[in-house]
Design a protein that fits this description.
- With 317 residues, the protein is of the alpha+beta class.
- It folds into 2 domains: 5-146, no CATH class; 166-304, Rieske Iron-sulfur Protein (3-layer Sandwich), CATH 2.102.10.
- The chain is 37% helix and 16% strand.
- The protein contains 7 helices and 11 strands.
- A 7-stranded mixed beta sheet has the order 1-3-4-5-10-11-2.
- A hairpin with a 5-residue loop joins strand 8 (242-244) and strand 9 (250-252).
- Helix 3 (25-43) packs antiparallel against helix 4 and helix 3 (25-43) packs antiparallel against helix 6.
- The longest helix has 30 residues, at 48-77.
- It is rod-shaped.
- The chain binds FE2/S2 (inorganic) cluster.
- FE2/S2 (inorganic) cluster binds next to loops.
């Protein structure tokens, strides 16, 4: 279902930046400035201007915090339920609301002071505690972005074929079956990346089985051929999305869209991939379309094969 214009604006799509992360700087800055004025007022000679300045800064901070919460909430609703960031986001949101509540109580206390010139130690410690909570919340927000890829932009990534992608010129193929000479020598856990008439495909050998799949992850275009293979599943090396290599289905977020998969056959040691979308020659030639160098019979060579990492254990089941 297409997203509404309001939702797209709240997600920061027109600016190509998440709106929430742009707005949160305002309340954080205002709360820190308020604390500095409180401390100055406490150690000063009882300055009415400092007291009022801190109070108004706090009010502005709470207002900006509430405004920043709206796009943050919209971003949170877009996270899949099975993504660890969903739970982290709840804590992040809960802590932020708690901070706003603490500052709200602090504002009420200040309005009811009989001598509004100097802030007492209890209010200063309250502000310190709130900033401590805000720091924990910011840490959780960072986890969501850096660990789980929430709000990571992909508009600048053009997903070019890496230099070791094996490119095949697009002409014609018999019923879409593309032979991959030499692929029979791949070992368990090794992968290839193919460009078959413009379709970028990862080929992996897992045990005795071969899997062919759309190489770029549907989340943020992470290269799945460099991912971690676990049985019939591949885990994206960037943010941990997992896909079933037999069906292409997402089995774990943050990705939401399935990947394309392709049929592979191994006839008497000749491995072929069926790519219905592309038209490739039965006698494929390697890299000739791109390099302009002399064409030669195409064959997988040892440097074409990569052994993907297996160190990245999944963060959550
Ligand atoms: S690019 Fe983010 S999970 Fe694959």
């Amino acid at each position: 279902m297409p997203k509404s214009l309001v939702r797209r604006i709240l997600e920061g799509k027109p600016l190509r930046q998440p709106l929430h992360t742009m707005l949160v700087h305002f309340p954080i800055g205002l709360f820190v400035v308020s604390l500095v004025m409180d401390v100055a007022s406490y150690f000063g000679a009882g300055d009415y201007a400092l007291f009022r300045g801190s109070l108004y800064t706090l009010c502005a901070g709470v207002a900006m915090g509430l405004i920043a919460a709206v796009p943050g909430f919209v971003d949170w609703t877009d996270i899949r339920r099975d993504n660890p960031a969903k739970g982290i986001g709840q804590w992040h949101m809960g802590l932020n609301l708690l901070v706003l509540l603490v500052y709200g109580i602090s504002i009420i206390a200040r309005f009811s002071m009989t001598d509004p010139r100097r802030v007492g130690l209890p209010l200063i410690f309250t502000s310190l505690a709130a900033i401590g909570l805000l720091s924990v919340s910011g840490y959780l927000g960072g986890m969501m972005v850096y660990d789980d890829g929430i709000g990571v932009g992909r508009h600048r990534r053009r997903a070019p074929a890496p230099s070791r992608t094996i490119a095949l010129p697009s002409t014609s193929a018999e019923e879409g079956w593309v032979p991959i000479p030499g692929a029979e020598h791949m070992e368990d856990g090794q992968t290839l990346r193919l460009d078959v008439g413009g379709v970028i495909i990862g080929l992996a050998r897992v045990g005795t089985a071969y899997y062919a799949f759309q190489d770029f992850c549907t989340h943020r275009h992470g290269p799945l051929s460099e991912g971690c293979f676990m049985g019939d599943q591949v885990m994206c090396p960037w943010h941990g999305s997992r896909f079933d290599l037999r069906t292409g289905h997402v089995t774990h977020g943050p990705a939401k869209k399935d990947i394309n998969i392709y049929e592979v056959r191994n006839l008497n040691g000749e491995v072929s991939v069926r790519i219905p979308e592309a038209k490739v020659p039965t006698t494929a030639r390697r890299d000739s379309a791109r390099s302009g160098t002399e064409e030669r019979e195409w064959k997988v060579e040892p440097e074409d094969i990569t052994s993907p990492t297996t160190e990245q254990a999944p963060r959550a089941e």
